[in-house]
Amino acid sequence: MSGADLESPFTPVEGYPVDLWNPKLCGEIDIVIRADGSWWHEGVRIERQSLISLFAKLLRHDDDDYYLITPVEKLKITVEDLPFLAVDFDRGGERLIFITDQNERVTLGAEHPLAFDGDDLRPRIRIRHNLWARVTRAAWYRLVDKADVQGDRIIIGSQSFDLKPSVI
What we know:
single chain, mainly beta, elongated
């Protein structure tokens, strides 16, 4: 391990290049990611976190559907809201680093923007590609406590985001 490794505030979760894989659709599998972040298979909650973590790394969002992707298979699954939850955040100087229920960490910014859904402005943050995490109520309240709201903008440190339903 180098000194540069020790200075990094976090180590990104290694994923699979699902965005490069283009297998044919094999059908659907009865896997549901519920709005509370729990994963279910054939009506039974999946309890093994290692299995959920593997599936989360194989997840892709194309058009309006979610799929588990391998180099040779593409299976459609159901996602009730968003596939991940942003459960907390840490400060890294001026940066805010969000932590998901899958222990992925992303730094709020252009690559991982904050966006809002619906009339009630439910916050979400982009995790990777076209996969988003719903910001939990507890994390949102902590964030608002550290932010400044000016009109239809929320200002967090040196970053500013529209406080209106988003199309991204």
